[in-house]
Amino acid sequence: MLVYLRVFKESFSFALNALRNNKLRTFLSLLGVTVGIFSIIAVLAAVDSLDRNIKDSLSGLDKNTIYISKYSFGPTEVPRWKRDNFPQTDYDDYEFIKRNVPDIAASAYVIFGGNETVRYQAETVSGVNVTPVSNEIYEIEDFKVEKGRFYSELESETGAPVIVLGADLAESLFDNSNPIGKQIRVYGRKLTVIGVLKKLGSGLGDSPDGRAYVPANFVRRFRNGGVDGLPGAVIIKPEKDVDIGGFENVLKQKFRAFRGLKADEDDDFFVNKIAGLVSFVDSIISMLNGVGWVISGFSLLVGGFGIANIMFVSVKERTNLIGIQKSLGAKKRFILFQFLFEATILAVVGGLVGLLLVWIISMVMNGIVGESFEFVLSFGNMFLGFFLSTIIGLLSGVIPAISASKLDPVEAIRTGM
Description:
Layout: H1 2-20, H2 23-58, E1 66-69, H3 80-84, H4 91-100, E2 104-111, E3 115-120, E4 123-132, H5 137-140, E5 145-148, H6 153-158, E6 162-165, H7 167-174, E7 183-186, E8 189-197, E9 212-214, H8 216-220, H9 224-227, E10 232-238, H10 244-258, E11 270-273, H11 274-317, H12 319-327, H13 332-369, H14 379-405, H15 409-416
Parallel strand pairs: 4-9, 6-8
Antiparallel strand pairs: 1-10, 1-11, 2-10, 3-4, 5-8, 6-9, 7-8
Helix pairs in contact: 1-13, 2-11, 2-13, 2-14, 4-10, 11-13, 11-14, 12-15, 13-14
């Protein structure tokens, strides 16, 4: 055992000296592996970060939450022309479902509106996601009121001119002053601020902290029932422990009857489940990971070939030295380990540099985008980068190392002279 440790130590020291004596060649070899590891880990980290941010934005919703809309959240076999002719999901649909479908814990009607400009005195915030939605959304989504309150059922049904602000939006408009009771202008109309939501952090797309919520019926009064080309949806949160399959069947049957669809007619709506959306996201993430591996793998392969090429050159240059070492009693394993360690050190150092670059970029990205998107470099990806660089070093150096260990000492000395 001690003999092998001594061989390991001497081979390691010899490899380090060889790398130090050929700085330019070492740098060029490092560059190939660095680019390869950087490409793979950067792609994996970006995809993981996207996956985590999407999942975090959906985590506040029950996986059984259902969206009824004319649009599908995922791939569908229904042709585009038929989908375009589906009627918009409107407030009457919401009222029917709320009153006639059993086992509903909460349901809400939402209009997916465009971005609006919000003004308070001299302060103006553009591009704000103002969401017209009924009051039950408070029971469905995972947010809490920090100041004031959410609008009531009466205010929701009558379309009262009230608004609830996200934490960041409230700070942008009012700084440190209390916004409750203040009037702001949205849609060219005055609305009274009655609540500010607790800060939630990053989310999918725009941060929920930068949004605002108004009663859907307030918008419906001046926007053609709230539609005007803007899609609406009924959000349904079923009771706990309910049979989701049976619940979905009852929901479809009753809603089809409400819309007057015959038995041989296809649905003119989609029942979108959050669980299905999560599965769809997982499939997209898997595809992105696969594409990232293929593209980045070529970079890593080039880096591996670069190390192998350099190692063959190194063996050629040191043929005379190898012959002398073997004539003095150096074993084959010593020569083998010597070149294997040299190739592995090259690959590992290159991999560590690649990881360092990804880490620096992740810190810069997090500093630029703030809380709206968190770029994550996980320990798993860091270990994967280190492991891959080690394997690439071993694979790239094994053939040159074997060829060096098999050299005949007399022929090696004569060839090198």
